[in-house]
Amino acid sequence: MYILAFETSCDDTSIALFEDAILRSMHTKSQVKIHEKTGGVVPEVAAREHANSIFEVLDAVLKEGGVSLEDIDYIGVTTQPGLIPSLLTGITVANTIATSLKIPIIPIHHIEAHIFANYLEREEQEIKFPLVCLTVSGGHNEIYAMKSMWELEKIGGTIDDAAGEAFDKVAKMMGLGYPGWPIISKKALMYRQLSLHSLVRSKTESGLFPRVWLDKKAFDFSFSGLKTAVKREIDARIETSWSLREEDIQEISYEFEESVTEVLAYKLIEAAKMKQVSTVMLAGGVSANTILRDKIQLLADTHELEFLYPKKIQYCMDNAAMVGINTYYKVRYEKYERDIYQVTV
Ligand code: KG4
Ligand code: ZN
Prior knowledge:
Structural class: alpha/beta
Distance between the termini: 26 Å
Helix content: 40-55%
Shape: globular
Number of domains: 2
Strand content: 15-25%
Largest sheet: 5 strands, mixed
Bound molecules: 5'-O-[(R)-(carboxyoxy)(hydroxy)phosphoryl]adenosine, zinc ion
CATH architecture of the largest domain: 2-Layer Sandwich
Strand order of the largest sheet: 3-2-1-4-5
Order of helices and strands: EEEHHEHEHEEEHHHHEHEH
Number of helices: 10
Number of strands: 10
CATH topology of the largest domain: Nucleotidyltransferase, domain 5
C-alpha cells in the first residue's frame, strides 16, 4: 500500500511517500527565509510560495520513491487547523490527484499528526496507553490524556498565546528573526556557558521572570503576561544602556526559556500523576527543544515515568511524514470514509 501525504498548514511545503508504515521519501521546502523579513508568516505570501513549490516537491518525492502517481493507493492531507490559504493549496492539489485517480483521500488533523509523529520509526506496541501528551508548537499548546491512539481527552491548553508563538514574538522584540525558539535557545545556551565559566548566575534564585502556574493543579497555560514582562525588561534595559546589548539578549533569552520550559515540564508531569499513567509524550515543533526535553526527562526519571518524543528532529517540526503515518493508521484501523475523493478545510 502506497500513501502520499501533504502538509501545507503553515510555512512548509512538505510531501511524503509511505509504503505501509515505512517512510520511502519526503521533501520539504521551507519558507523561513521569506518570512524572516516580516518576522512572522503572512498568510497570502505563504500560500503563494506553497503554490510555487508544490509540484516541484511532488516530483522530487515521486522520483526518489521510484513510483508514479498511478501507484498511489491513498492520499492524506492536513485540513485543519492552520492558515486557510496555505491549507487550501495542499488540499487542492491532493483533491485533484484523488479525484482523477479515484483513490480515497483522508483528512488529517494537524495536532493529531504531530502526536502521531511519535509512531515514526517505532513499532506500534512501543507506545503504551494510557498516557499523557503535551503538544507545543507555534500555534498550539495543549495537554491530552490518551486512552488509545484514537481516544484523546483535552485536559488543558493555553488561554492566550502558545509557547512557540510567545518565543516567536519575544525573538521579534529583540530583533532576532524567525522562527524564534531555536534562535532564543542558541542565545540562552551562550548565557548558560558564560554563567558556568564566570559563576555569574541569574539575578534571583527563581529567575528574572515569573513562572506562570495559574492553578498549579490544573493544566492550562498562559504566556501573554510573561511576554509583557519580557517587553518591560527589554524597554528598561534599552532605557539604561541606550540599546539592547548582546549580553542582555543572552540573559533575557535564558531567563525566558527557563520560565516557559519549567512550567511546561511541571504541568505535563502533574497531569501524568493525576491521570495515573506511566508514560508521558511530547509533540509539536517545540519538541525539538533540548532544554524542554531535559527538564521533562529529569522529572520523568524522578517519578519513574517513560518519556517519549519524536525520533528525529525533522519529525518534530511541520512535516508530511507525520501526516503519512497518521494516514497509515487511519487506513489500517478503517478510521476513514471510503469513496471520498475530495476534502475541504
Ligand atoms: O509545529 P510547528 O513546526 O508549527 C506549528 O504547528 O505551529 O512549530 C513551530 C514552532 C515555532 O514557534 C518555532 O519557534 C518552534 O516551533 N521551533 C523550535 C525549533 N524549530 C522550530 N523550537 C525549538 N527548537 C527548534 N529546533
Ligand atoms: Zn505544527
